[in-house]
Amino acid sequence: MPVSLEHYLAFVAASLILLVIPGPTIIMVISQALAHGRRVALASVAGVGLGDLIATSLSLAGAGALLATSGTLFSVLKLIGAAYLIWIGFKMWRAPVMIPDVAVEANAPAVRPMTIFRDSFLVTALNPKGILFFVAFVPQFIDPARPYLPQAAIFVGTFTVLGIANAIAFALAADRARRAVRRPGVLRTATRAGGSLLMMAGLAAALTRRTA
């Protein structure tokens, strides 16, 4: 077996603890579910999953080491990701909300799941701190006596699957809350709160310096 059961279970437990704490991507998934429902939220989940897969794979393929040594590259990626996060939060603030089968605002433009997928993917993939975190996180569970690549592949796949499952759980819970509330004012407030949190997260990311 490429990974010892002890190391694998420890990795799963640590990953679950980290994943249940909502970050910007989960806030985005929840806000999309509250504003537009399950179908759009699941498109966001798919984007988060692919973004996690790409980011974690790149981190273990050497991109993490490159980001750790290149302050300029880290800053560029950080600013691009932060700006995109702010833009998505701004769009969510302005977007009309929907209740099941009813448009809350007249002539509300249709929300394209592919657009939501793209936004979620880019926010997740363009997060240099996430890449650096994974570089620091995974080696804690690597067994030096076993081949590195199979272990890394298993950990990347496991983390991605757990991340998708976690995002789906949040999306379905938010969609259930949306269907239970069915009050446009409440849903609009919740969606704008999520958009505000995303903009604040983007500003915080842009202003935070990389630790040495």
From TrEMBL:
<feature type="transmembrane region" description="Helical">
    <location>
        <begin position="148"/>
        <end position="174"/>
    </location>
</feature>
<feature type="transmembrane region" description="Helical">
    <location>
        <begin position="73"/>
        <end position="90"/>
    </location>
</feature>
<keyword id="KW-1003">Cell membrane</keyword>
<keyword id="KW-0472">Membrane</keyword>
<feature type="transmembrane region" description="Helical">
    <location>
        <begin position="6"/>
        <end position="30"/>
    </location>
</feature>
<dbReference type="InterPro" id="IPR001123">
    <property type="entry name" value="LeuE-type"/>
</dbReference>
<dbReference type="GO" id="GO:0015171">
    <property type="term" value="F:amino acid transmembrane transporter activity"/>
</dbReference>
<dbReference type="Pfam" id="PF01810">
    <property type="entry name" value="LysE"/>
</dbReference>
<feature type="transmembrane region" description="Helical">
    <location>
        <begin position="121"/>
        <end position="142"/>
    </location>
</feature>
<keyword id="KW-0812">Transmembrane</keyword>
<protein>
    <submittedName>
        <fullName>Threonine/homoserine/homoserine lactone efflux protein</fullName>
    </submittedName>
</protein>
<keyword id="KW-1133">Transmembrane helix</keyword>
<dbReference type="GO" id="GO:0005886">
    <property type="term" value="C:plasma membrane"/>
</dbReference>
<feature type="transmembrane region" description="Helical">
    <location>
        <begin position="42"/>
        <end position="67"/>
    </location>
</feature>
